[in-house]
């Protein structure tokens, strides 16, 4: 007797992988997290740029004060408000000033605006041969709506960020 054996029916074997629904849900979640993170990143970047620009100005004011004292000559620090340029020159007069140092705060990495500079009614301060400023004052920097004010003490010449 011959019995015919029927071949076994192959069963579907589950393959490892992700379904289209799982992939779409994952992409939606990643998109939502990114949408929450991007504004915070922009704010953090503006805060970093404002702080870095203010620290740069303070360091340059300290450098100008040190140069004036070490050379026993006048050093002038100019705030070109409309150009967003910070300059250190060796003479008080803008006509015959010898440029020592210049920073374009509106360029990379700061992208900063000098919105105001008031040093005794001027946009500049002169450090004499002893490193003493002729006046105190403030300079205001702005990046993305954030402002940093640099205050120069008229007695000591110390610059601070507020």
TrEMBL record:
InterPro entries in alphabetical order: N_methyl_site, Pilin-like
Record-annotated membrane-spanning stretches: 20-39
Range of residues in the leader sequence: none
Highest taxon of the lineage: Bacteria
Alphabetically ordered keywords of this record: Membrane, Transmembrane, Transmembrane helix
Protein name (record): Prepilin-type N-terminal cleavage/methylation domain-containing protein
């Amino acid at each position: 007797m011959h019995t015919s054996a029927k071949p076994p029916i192959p069963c579907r074997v589950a393959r490892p992988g992700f379904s289209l629904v799982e992939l779409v849900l994952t992409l939606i979640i990643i998109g939502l997290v990114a949408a929450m993170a991007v504004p915070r990143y922009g704010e953090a970047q503006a805060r970093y740029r404002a702080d870095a620009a203010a620290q740069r100005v303070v360091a340059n004011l300290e450098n100008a004060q040190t140069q004036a004292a070490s050379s026993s000559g006048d050093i002038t620090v100019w705030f070109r408000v409309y150009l967003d340029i910070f300059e250190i020159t060796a003479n008080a007069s803008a006509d015959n000033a010898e440029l020592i140092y210049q920073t374009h705060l509106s360029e990379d990495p700061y992208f900063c605006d000098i919105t105001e500079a008031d040093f005794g009614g001027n946009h500049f301060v002169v450090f004499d041969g002893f490193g003493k400023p002729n006046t105190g004052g403030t300079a205001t920097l702005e990046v993305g709506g954030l402002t940093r004010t640099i205050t120069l003490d008229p007695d000591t010449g110390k610059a601070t960020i507020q």
